Every structure is written in C-alpha cells, then in structure tokens.
C-alpha cells in the first residue's frame, strides 16, 4: 500500500519528521529537480520551513544508515 511506503519514508531530522526530496518526487512521479524548481518558483505557496537543505554531517549520517544511497546535492 502507498500509505505504508510513505510512512516508511518519513524520517526525523533536526527534531522534525520529514520526507526527502527524491521520495516526494517519486511519489508525484516527477524528477527531483522538477520538484525543487517548482517549490523555489512558488515559495509563497509553502510554509517558510517547508524545505531545507541537509548539511554535510546530516548527509553522511543518512548515507551510513542506508537511507540515501550516496551523497546527493
């Protein structure tokens, strides 16, 4: 079921439950870069804390936990 897949993709970063951009893009069946572009072009439609970038330590932590396959930009 899609609900179970989505629940499995929710992780906690900085004390917030989040989904990574490539999981959201997969859910909406679009490319990750297209999703990021759409959000940046329509910032006024999203809460200020809707999107943030991971720092290097967070990326390495997720890679080591196999949450993401390799460093993403």
Describe this structure in words.
The chain is built from four helices and two strands. It has about 70 residues and is mainly alpha-helical. A two-stranded antiparallel ribbon has the order 1-2. Strand 1 and strand 2 form a beta hairpin. Helix 2 (about 20-25) crosses helix 3 (about 30-40). The longest helix has 10 residues, at about 30-40.
Layout of secondary structure:
Elements: H1 2-9, E1 11-13, E2 16-18, H2 21-27, H3 32-41, H4 56-64
Helix pairs in contact: 2-3
What's this model, at a glance?
The chain has 73 residues and is mainly α. Helices cover 47% and strands 8% of the residues. Helix 2 packs across helix 3.
Largest sheet data: 2 strands, antiparallel
Order of strands, main sheet, comes to 1-2
Topology as a string of helices (H) and strands (E): HEEHHH
Please count the beta strands (DSSP E, at least 2 residues each): 2
Rounded Rg: 13 Å
Residues in helix, %:
40-55%
Low-confidence spans: pLDDT under 50, at least 5 residues?
A: none
Counting helices, strands and paired strands, the structural category is: mainly alpha
Quote the average pLDDT.
87
């Amino acid at each position: 079921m899609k609900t179970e897949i989505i629940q499995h993709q929710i992780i906690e970063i900085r004390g917030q439950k989040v989904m990574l951009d490539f999981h959201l893009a997969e859910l909406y069946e679009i490319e990750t870069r297209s999703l990021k572009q759409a959000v940046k072009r329509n910032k006024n439609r999203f809460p200020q804390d809707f999107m943030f970038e991971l720092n290097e330590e967070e990326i390495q932590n997720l890679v080591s936990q196999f949450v993401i396959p390799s460093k993403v930009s």
